[in-house]
Design brief:
globular; eight-stranded mixed beta sheet; mainly beta
Length: 352
């Protein structure tokens, strides 16, 4: 028979019991702490927009809020007590904007509540809407994901690969990748091969608008087949759209090779890391006319490559609105020879 303990007759015992109970609850996450989100009505909003190409669909967005007030209590490798910011996850579906191909969600930056939540990161992306178009028993593989971090913590997918200032605009190419695996049972996956592996990860502390435009090149499919037995020298074989087969030890398609096959340009021209070796660097003249401080009435133009890098000692030919011609090389900072204001704006630009 279980008897109820009557602590009302002993106020001191009742107080001790309450304190012990509260202490126990606190170690588990706080005494009667309210962990719910409660964004204030005037909270600043962060918008995420996806321009969805035909054949793909949006994945459910994973939104994480963090709190320095409500700590997550854990145990370290040596049994010591550990504390880190608490976290709270919510899941959102992006809503279609009218009859357009734009899908959007707005998120309060301030999560409010007793824990004073703040928006920490979002994980979203795209995947194929219909897997049956690739055959029977084909399952989704991965790719087409984006992580944006709004604070100084890592996301559940790790830290950022890129740090950006201001708003974030992402426009990336993707290719269908159909892969077969044999070891441990036959599996067939369809994935999106892109610049990153599965996720592109950004830290954007000041961003208020996130725009993601995946560009799907459906006509440039890459196939892969893993070896049927584990043996030295057995590698996954990739068959590219031009029919070439490569088995060089890589586990993912050669993205720059796909870009090169589609565009007809050398692979070095398609990466900012190897662009200095590009045989056909594409220069461009920025439209702003920059006055020369010690030469009144004269200004210069800046010439850069397609990645925004300044091009020193680069040949150019300018024809001004007055018909005058300026033919020279850029200086060490990528600037043209000073030209008179009468030539601005330019009528013609050539790079011999």
């Amino acid at each position: 028979m279980v008897k109820q303990i009557n602590t009302l007759k002993n106020p001191a015992s009742a107080l001790r019991l309450a304190l012990v109970s509260c202490a126990l609850l606190f170690t588990l996450g706080g005494c009667r702490q309210d962990y719910s989100l409660s964004p204030p009505a005037d909270s600043e909003k962060i918008s995420v927009t996806v321009k969805l190409p035909e054949g793909l669909k949006n994945k459910t967005m994973w939104v994480m809020y963090r709190s320095a007030t409500c700590k997550h209590i854990g145990t370290g490798a040596s049994g010591q007590r550990t504390e880190r910011d608490g976290y709270h996850s919510v899941y959102k579906e992006l809503e279609r904007q009218g009859q357009s191909d734009l899908y959007q969600v707005e998120l309060p930056k301030d999560g409010g509540g007793a824990c004073r939540w703040h928006l920490a990161n979002v994980t979203f992306g795209v995947e194929y809407a219909d897997l049956t178009r690739f055959g029977e028993n084909v399952i989704w593989g991965g790719g087409g994901g984006v992580v944006v971090i709004f604070d100084h913590n890592n996301s559940p997918r790790g830290g950022a690969d890129f740090i950006v200032d201001g708003d974030l605009r992402i426009r990336k190419d993707y290719y269908p990748w159909l892969s077969e695996a044999f070891i441990g049972g036959y599996k067939k996956h369809i994935s999106l091969a892109g610049e990153g592996r599965i996720y592109l990860k950004y830290q954007a502390l000041q961003a208020r608008h996130i725009y993601f435009e995946p560009i799907l090149h459906s006509d440039f499919r890459v196939l892969s087949a893993q070896p049927k037995e584990i043996k030295e020298g057995n590698y996954t074989a990739f068959t590219y759209p031009d029919g070439s087969v490569v088995a060089d030890g890589r586990s993912n398609p050669d993205f720059l090779k796909l870009q090169s096959l589609r565009t007809g340009r050398a692979g070095d021209c398609l990466s900012p890391w190897t662009y200095h070796k590009c045989p056909d660097r594409r220069p461009q003249l920025l439209p702003e006319w920059l006055p020369v401080p010690d030469k009144p009435g004269f200004g210069q133009y800046l010439i850069v490559d397609e990645w925004g890098n300044k091009l020193p000692t680069y040949d150019y030919r300018l024809v001004g609105k007055d018909g005058r011609i300026n033919k020279w090389k850029t200086d060490a900072n990528g600037l043209t020879h000073p030209v008179p204001e009468s030539m601005h704006p330019l009528r013609e630009v050539e790079f011999p």
